[in-house]
Specification:
about 750 residues; alpha+beta; eight-stranded mixed sheet; 18 helices
Length: about 750
């Protein structure tokens, strides 16, 4: 059968098309109210642009009313004529917002989906609109029944005259399939319009006009730098300020952007922690988007160049690219800001991944690292020491004892961090800028010494005595020999139940240099110091006198020394101290000259010690003051283990403090008959504190604290001068909240205080 050439009109399943528009383009059925409000916002923006007015003026307004199954959105924007309604609003794909006027006004919508998106949730939609130059407005209406009646054709929209929108504007009335959840709609819509400058009321409540530029939680933020800064990246220039919150998270406040000299409206707040960025255009939220970066970023940005996709659930390719460049640029600025501060580096460990990947190792001067002696130092300070000839090594915490010995030798030993990126960054910096070498911790005794000299035997004997007396470690062997590394001593970790093996290179320069001192009290004092500095941190682990963290075990010690200690009270508080009163004259100064083979033995324990070291062999040159004999008997062997020492003066008191830096502190208080006004750093000061650099001296059956030179005029008599002092010693243990004094001898035992 022959077929004639004919034509027919294409059909359309209009109801299915609406399903695609309402359910697949938009991420939620609630989006219909957002689209209607966004149209209202755009209409007011164009009207304000025509009038040369600000959209936030009181003359512009949007009202949303929600009740039961009815939603009404009303605005007093430009409105639409009957032809606009027919050709733009009710025509899929058409839009009146692609004009230059609309672009200049900052309109958001350009896709032309129009009112048909409402039929995802509405059974009927009425749109009433009127322009300023029309005497009558127009009402248009379409329902689901009309769509079904049209079958496979395009349905007809009803139209009639109406002045409901007069004198200018648009009213959209939607009849819902089911009763609206008012709170859900309000919450959803508020998220999109809270920063819109136009007045928007939801059931009478203003849900817009919030301050977009206002820094959230201002009281929690501290500005870094005083002025607005310009951050550059090629032809990008961003102007803004950087803040840090109390949790050390950085916050960037962005004020504007220029690209190749062209101003671009950009503003917002970014927090450098993981999350999404809310993207806005002139206060109206377009979508939330995540931009991949190393340290994470979240917050909000508003820019006229931002464009959403049709469904508003993502940004278009151009917007995503622009956002990516902005975020990566500000991430670099944030990293630089973190690297300017040691404290911020500690709180933002994520930056090390960025530093390693972007070859910013040279920026790590302020990064704090842990040393073998448990102290901390910046990489920049270590770099400075290496330039002065100090050896720098890096190791791991597993070789703790060995690392501490290397540190005591005068080297800097860095314990690398456990985090992979931070460890890699530290290692690269140390190798590149500090000539650091890896220290694997493998130590061996390459030669055992057989024929020991008298000095070497005495050194070993005195070292053994110091270990027994100060740490009460009984099971150990001292093994003299040459070690494979440049260290004088090494404690080998024992197997369970086995004694400690302590290797001593008695011919190492650090030890051999002491032979010139002769067999004097100062030699024995320095051997005790050697024991504390090189072996103390390791021996504490095996000593009953110390807890595992290195703090003194006062409960254990007080029971063993009850005849020497007096427990003052259970709780630490202000107590009436006893003490000893002395008159100190120049006869009470014992002088020791370093290098003399014999020392004059005092006929009594003199209060002051003067070590004269003109050659600088020991670094001990200066005056020292003796603690009370009763205190020395009670706990003199504990004092050297307290490595944190200082002296404080105020009023007529000078107080020495020695602490284990954890819980226990020894206080040696000296009261004078005059005010202490010391010259310190070129100024006279009535109070102050000095860290003690010289070690304690154990000589003449006593312990002497060093006297800093600013305090010598108050403690060291000259000529016929007499200095009256009242002396007090006490222990305080914060762990047990107890307080001890040494038991003083009977008054008849120290009649010299009555001189």
């Amino acid at each position: 059968m022959n077929q004639e050439n004919t034509t027919f009109q294409a059909g359309i399943d209009f109801e299915s098309v609406l399903q695609i528009i309402s359910k697949q383009v938009y991420e939620t059925p609630l989006a219909f109210i957002r689209e209607n409000v966004q149209n209202a916002v755009d209409a007011i923006r164009i009207q304000a642009h025509r009038e040369g007015a600000n959209p936030n003026a009181n003359s512009y307004r949007i009202d949303i009313t929600v009740k039961d199954k009815k939603i009404v959105v009303r605005d007093n924007g430009i409105g639409m004529s009957d032809s606009d309604l027919k050709n733009l609003f009710w025509t899929i794909g058409a839009s009146g917002k692609r004009t230059q006027e609309a672009l200049s006004a900052g309109c958001v919508g350009t896709f032309g989906i129009g009112g048909f998106a409402n039929f995802g949730v509405c059974t009927k939609l009425e749109v009433i609109s009127q322009t300023e130059d029309c005497e009558q407005g127009t009402l248009t209406r379409l329902s689901e029944e009309d769509i079904r009646a049209a079958a496979n054709t395009i349905p007809s929209v009803s139209q009639e005259e109406s002045n409901v929108a007069a004198p200018r504007g648009t009213v959209v009335i939607g009849n819902l399939r089911k009763t609206a959840n008012v709170n859900e709609l309000k919450t959803y819509l508020s998220d999109f319009v809270r920063f819109v400058p136009i007045t928007i009321h939801f059931n009478g409540e203003n849900i817009s006009q919030k301050g977009f530029l206002q820094v959230d939680d201002q009281d929690n933020l501290t500005q870094i730098g005083l002025d607005t800064q310009e951050w550059h990246d090629g032809d990008f220039v961003i102007t803004g300020k950087m803040f840090v919150d109390k949790g050390h998270t950085l916050v960037a406040a962005i004020e504007n952007l220029s690209i190749a000299g062209e101003f671009v409206n950009l503003k917002g707040r970014l927090r450098f922690q993981n999350g999404a960025i809310d993207v806005f255009k002139r206060g109206f939220k377009l979508c939330a988007i995540q931009i991949g970066c190393t340290i994470g970023v979240s917050g909000r940005l508003d820019c006229d160049r931002f464009v959403p996709t049709a469904g508003r659930d993502s940004a278009d390719a151009g917007t995503t690219s622009l956002l990516g460049r902005i975020v990566l640029m500000l991430e670099r600025i944030a990293i630089d800001t973190v690297l300017d501060s040691s404290e911020r580096i500690v709180q933002n460990a994520r930056i090390f991944q960025y530093v390693v990947r972007n070859s910013l190792i040279d920026k790590l001067d302020n990064a704090m690292v842990r040393l073998a002696d448990a102290s901390e130092m910046t990489l920049g300070d270590i770099r400075g020491k290496s330039q002065q000839g100090v050896g720098v090594f890096f190791g791991t915490a597993q070789k703790h004892a060995l690392n501490q010995i290397m540190q005591a030798r005068g080297h800097v030993v860095v314990l690398l961090s456990a985090d992979r990126y931070r460890r890699d960054a530290e290692r690269q910096y140390l190798e590149q800028y500090c000539a650091a070498q890896p220290f694997d911790g493998i130590i061996d005794c390459s030669e055992h010494y057989q024929d020991l000299t008298r000095f070497e035997k005495i050194f070993l004997s005195e070292l053994e005595f110091s270990i027994l007396r100060s740490y009460e470690v009984e099971k150990f062997h001292l093994i003299p020999g040459k070690l494979t590394e440049d260290i004088p001593v090494f404690l080998k970790e024992p197997s369970l139940g086995q004694p400690l093996d302590i290797f001593i290179d008695v011919r190492h320069p650090e030890i051999a240099k002491l032979e010139v001192l002769g067999y004097t009290d100062i030699l024995y004092s320095l051997i005790s110091t050697f024991c504390r500095e090189y072996l103390g941190p390791s021996l504490k682990k095996w000593s009953r006198r110390f807890f595992g963290d290195g703090s003194l075990n006062f409960e254990f010690l007080s029971k063993r020394r009850s005849e020497l200690w007096t427990l003052v009270k259970d709780d630490i508080g202000v107590v009436l101290k006893g003490g000893q009163r002395d008159v100190v004259t120049s006869d009470d100064v014992q002088q020791v000259n370093v290098g003399e083979q014999s020392e004059p033995k005092p006929n009594k324990e003199k209060r002051l010690l003067h070590i004269v070291d003109e050659a600088g062999t020991t670094g001990l040159n200066g005056y020292y003051i003796r603690i009370l004999d009763s205190a020395f008997k009670a706990y003199g062997d504990l004092l050297p283990a307290c490595e944190n020492r200082g002296v404080v003066w105020a009023g007529n008191k000078i107080s020495y403090v020695a602490s284990d830096a954890i819980s226990a502190a020894f206080q040696y208080e000296i009261r004078l008959d005059e005010l202490v006004v010391a010259e310190f750093n070129g100024e006279e000061q009535v109070e102050g504190a000095i860290e003690l650099q010289r070690p304690l001296q154990e000589m003449y059956a006593g312990i002497y604290f060093p006297i800093p030179s600013p305090l010598e005029p108050f403690l060291v008599p000259t000529g016929d001068q007499e200095i009256r002092v009242h002396l007090y010693c006490e222990w305080i243990d914060m762990l047990s909240a107890k307080h001890w004094l040494p038991r003083e001898p009977a008054p008849s035992d120290y009649s010299k205080s009555d001189r």
